[in-house]
Amino acid sequence: MIIPRNIIGWSLLLLPFSAIALMGDSFMQVWLLMLAVLVLVALFDAVSLLRHATGIAVKAPESSGLYLKRSGSFELTFFNPDHQSRLISNLRLMLPPEISYEMHAEDILLPASEQSVIDVECLPHRRGSYQVGECIFEVKSPLGGWSMRVRKQLDAELRVYPDLPGERKKLAALFLNSGLSGMHINRLLGQGREFEKLREYLPGDGFDIISWKATAKRGRPISKVYQMEDTQEVYAIFDTSRFSRVTKNDTTNLDHYLASSFTLSQIAERQKDSFGLIGFDSQIRSFIRAGNGQAHHLACRDEIFSLMPQDNSPDFNNLFTFIRMKLRRRAMLIFLTDLSDPALAEEFIHGVELLANRHLCFINMLNNDEIIPLFKNPVETGKEVYNRLAGHLKWSDLQETRLELARHGISLSLTDRSGLSLQMVSEYLEAKRRQMI
């Protein structure tokens, strides 16, 4: 769309010629000639604008990564094919409301026959995948009489990942020693689980490491030698059902689950272990078999970054059936879910009993401000007494669930949202140190 500019200036320019036209017929011809020249100049200016403006090309990266509630940027590349520099103004982007952006300069000068790269600063407010629609800007004509509003379609995607940098900062205390991948030196307990070789019996060897078959075959005592397992499997199993929709400080429980899981994956990679992910609600939403390496970490991030909380309830029986079918090797399973519902907690306990014999299971549940003991905080109103009583009953049921899980050797931890990553990493490192996996 072409818009006339400087209308007042053009009107003032025509006033003297209009006065000359009133002086007689001979002056009328001069006025018409000057008017024709002025119209031709305006048309030439408009045609030049149309040719130059439509030739400007705009490109953006096919995919750009941002982190939730952290300022980031992506690049816009402008190419001016003309042999003269052009000035564009009022640059605007058609972005979804979940992403706010800011432009540092309203007017941008595009050099002649060159590319210009502009950084667009963004602040995402919600995790997911978003498309950058149109890019709208105005181009002034060479003589300044017109301006044209140009729309360019951008085939670009903005991927908003969980707040991984923020989670890594919370684990700064674990990265004080740079000698061993940033971890403190912890003494490993036990002799290892992986068989290495056979050797002759030495005085002091226990009966539990004697290979009786090799002893009977060779006719003399033979001992077994074990070594530490280098590669073990760790899985983060997170709930995407209605419980993950609970929001605090504009961040859902699922966002905390994903950010903590990716943080744990980086720690497991430094320990040379394999890491995998399982997302579930009433069905299995995502499954990535345990692996390691930077490519595997990026594949995990790109696979589930767009998962959103669902409105259904979790189906634990379906989850445990899936795990028994897919995970044949002993692994460490960290469940990120909510067991405040007694019926669902009972279903979880019945199903996890079979897993506890083969896998090492941990459960991490985010604290709920309403599920607290009755007399933990003072009560100010009579109506609040009933709310506290309901919260106390749920808290009591949760304590019974914790004791029942402990009978099967399964730990249930209630964790603040800010400490979920630290809790998961601490559980993993302790299990690693004690060779529980």
Annotate the secondary structure layout:
Layout: E1 2-4, H1 7-21, H2 25-55, E2 57-59, E3 63-67, E4 72-79, E5 86-93, E6 99-102, E7 107-110, E8 115-124, E9 128-140, E10 146-161, H3 164-170, E11 194-200, H4 212-218, E12 222-227, E13 233-239, E14 247-248, E15 251-252, H5 253-270, E16 274-280, E17 284-291, H6 294-304, H7 316-326, E18 331-336, H8 342-356, E19 360-366, H9 382-407, E20 411-415, H10 420-433
Parallel strand pairs: 3-10, 13-16, 13-18, 18-19, 19-20
Antiparallel strand pairs: 1-10, 2-4, 4-8, 5-7, 5-9, 6-8, 9-10, 11-12, 14-15, 16-17
Tell me what you see in this structure.
It is a single chain. The chain is an alpha/beta fold. It has 3 domains: 1-161, Immunoglobulins (Immunoglobulin-like, Sandwich), CATH 2.60.40.10; 164-186 and 229-433, Rossmann fold (3-Layer(aba) Sandwich); 194-227, no CATH class. The chain has helices at 7-21, 25-55, 164-170, 212-218, 253-270, 294-304, 316-326, 342-356, 382-407, 420-433; strands at 2-4, 57-59, 63-67, 72-79, 86-93, 99-102, 107-110, 115-124, 128-140, 146-161, 194-200, 222-227, 233-239, 247-248, 251-252, 274-280, 284-291, 331-336, 360-366, 411-415. The strands form 5 sheets. Strands 1, 3, 5, 7, 9 and 10 form a 6-stranded mixed beta sheet that branches. A 6-stranded mixed beta sheet has the order 17-16-13-18-19-20, with helices on both faces. Strands 2-4-8-6 form a 4-stranded antiparallel beta sheet, with no helix packed on it. The chain starts with a strand and ends with a helix.
